[in-house]
């Protein structure tokens, strides 16, 4: 029989501690074999689109109204199952009641997350009453994606051993920015592996929020990755060369000519 999507999703999301222990055992085995040496580690974040739609986000007033409707639906579906607990109709009603109870739990989780979202809004200078949370997944947050649009998403943080390219740390955060995510990952890797990498490389989006002083033991050296410089066009380089020659007293018109024309002119002038 095919696997139901609901138990499969529960299996992939609920046993977080077991999956974390599995990653620890995996990294420990590679360290014991000498494959992972933890001389240098790199960290980066990746925004992953959530399955929730933007229309599922509600403000506090609307969430409370949805919660009342969900509770009424749960109480209405409980009575028929108690009166007639056998038959196909009873199983169908039990499934409907379970779905209603799950929706009620999701709305309660959304209301519980509103204070956090309101504090973020207030820190950004916006009205805290405009904070919203999703009725289908309270952990989802509207983030700015790579194409410039805003969608519900999660921020996946990965830390890898640079030499072996093995993942040594994983974290899923609800913040849309990478600021402040460096210290928690360093602490996770230090606790998981029993040692801190000698160097920790991140891009320019990580420094900030005073997180550079929170380390376990000796802080690793922070070397941000170099940004790739755009290649200058030949015309731009020629203009800079012309300006330098003009400042040094050279002939501006001759400096602006192509090299081949300049060489031909010199040969003609020399006879």
From TrEMBL:
It comes from the Bacteria. Residues 81-104 are annotated as: Disordered. This is Mobile element protein. It comes from Candidatus Accumulibacter phosphatis.
């Amino acid at each position: 029989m095919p696997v139901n999507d609901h138990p499969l999703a529960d299996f992939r999301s609920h046993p977080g501690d077991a999956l974390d222990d599995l990653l620890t055992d995996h990294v420990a085995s590679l360290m014991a074999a000498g494959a992972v040496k933890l001389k240098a580690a790199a960290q980066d974040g990746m925004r992953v689109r959530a399955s929730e739609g933007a229309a599922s986000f509600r403000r506090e007033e609307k969430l409370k109204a949805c919660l009342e409707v969900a509770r009424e639906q749960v109480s209405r579906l409980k009575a028929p199952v108690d009166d007639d607990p056998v038959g196909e109709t009873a199983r169908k009603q039990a499934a409907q009641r379970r779905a209603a109870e799950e929706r009620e739990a999701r709305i309660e989780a959304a209301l519980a997350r509103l204070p956090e979202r309101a504090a973020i809004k207030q820190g950004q200078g916006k009205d805290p009453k405009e904070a919203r949370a999703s009725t289908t997944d309270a952990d989802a947050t509207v983030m700015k994606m790579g194409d410039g649009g805003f969608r519900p998403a999660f921020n996946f943080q990965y830390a890898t051993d640079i030499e072996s390219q093995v993942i040594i740390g994983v974290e899923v955060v609800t913040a849309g920015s990478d600021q402040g995510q460096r210290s928690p990952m360093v602490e996770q890797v230090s606790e998981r592996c029993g040692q801190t990498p000698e160097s920790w490389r991140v891009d320019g989006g990580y420094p900030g929020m005073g997180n550079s002083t929170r380390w376990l033991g000796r802080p690793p050296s922070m070397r941000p990755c170099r940004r790739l410089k755009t290649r200058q066009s030949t015309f731009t380089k020629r203009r800079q060369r012309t300006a330098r020659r003009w400042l040094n007293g050279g002939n501006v018109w001759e400096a602006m000519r192509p090299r081949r024309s300049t060489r031909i002119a010199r040969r003609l002038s020399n006879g």
